[in-house]
Amino acid sequence: MAEKTAEVICIGQALVDCIVRGKEPYRETVDIAEEIILNTGGDALNEACVLETLGCHAKLICGVGRDLAGDLVLKKAESHGVDLSGAVQSERITTPIANLTVDQNGGRRSCNSRATMLDGYLPKLEVPEDVRVVSLASLFRAPLDQKETVIRLVRTAKEAGAVVCADTKIPTFRQLALSDLEEILPMIDYLFPNEKEAEYLTGKKDYMEMAEALCRRGIQNVVVKTGREGCTACGKAQRFHMPARKVEAVDSTGAGDSFVAGFISGILAGDSLEGCCSRGIRCAGDCVQRMGAV
């Protein structure tokens, strides 16, 4: 049987999450929690695993260390059938571990270390003709937090005729601004900030105003992920808000990545902007009903 070829390339973070849910003070030096789990995470890994679950073959481009956390990341991706030919495991890298605190309503707060800078790792991209989408899964965080790297990757993807998607993060240890990427913003077909990231990028408070401001920068389509409120989309032909599914949320970790994976599956299926958002909403709703990112 012929080996499957990837339709989507996901570039960005792959790490391990330590998730603490329902933390409360217990004694002077002790807290208790309803649950503490280890799970894999990182935008690129999450997207690739969800895409595989949806029947879309994905290739992961990431850097991890030769450590326990790195082994867990690669094992998780392999178990989902993700193409790991673009993943680099190196002794020069420490695999990031994020600490996530989840409240009773499913909201979360994260703590990251300087390991997320991935010093010494730069992603390499080749786009075979079967690849239809290249997803920059964690724009503004390593390895997508250096101007020259992002510009090179976007240009390579567009020269190959791929659709370019970009999911954003708020910068931490390296400061890359939207203005640094002006020359390639029109090459981004879909941008997926959440409401906090969109406010950070635009200074706006209204969701549609956020999306419109980003489109004015040249980006083709902007979808603002608004959690339990759903999403707000702005493109050349459509502007709309789509409500979220009514589900019992346990943990929002990875919901945005699941949204993007669902949206990309719609791109591959030839759906409209509205149809792609509907797929994203369904995937995000599935994600928040369980602990962990995938």
Distance between the termini: 29 Å
SSE sequence, one letter per element: EEEEEHEEHEEEEHEEHHEEEHH
Strand order of the largest sheet: 6-1-11-12-13-14-15-16
- Helical segment count: 7
Beta-strand content bin:
25-35%
The mean pLDDT is 93
Largest sheet: 8 strands, mixed
- Binned, the helix content reads 25-40%
Please name the defining characteristics of this protein.
294 residues, alpha/beta, four-stranded mixed β-sheet, 7 helices, 29% helix, globular
How would you describe the overall organization of this protein?
This protein is an alpha/beta fold and 294 residues long. 29% of the residues lie in helices and 25% in strands. It is built from seven helices and 16 strands. Strands 6-1-11-12-13-14-15-16 form an eight-stranded mixed beta sheet, with helices on both faces. The protein has a four-stranded mixed beta sheet with strand order 5-2-9-10. A two-stranded antiparallel ribbon has the order 3-4. Helix 4 packs across helix 5. The longest helix is centred in the C-terminal third of the chain and has 15 residues, at 255-269. The mean pLDDT is 93.
Can you give me a brief rundown of this structure?
By secondary structure, this protein is α/β, with parallel strands linked by helices.
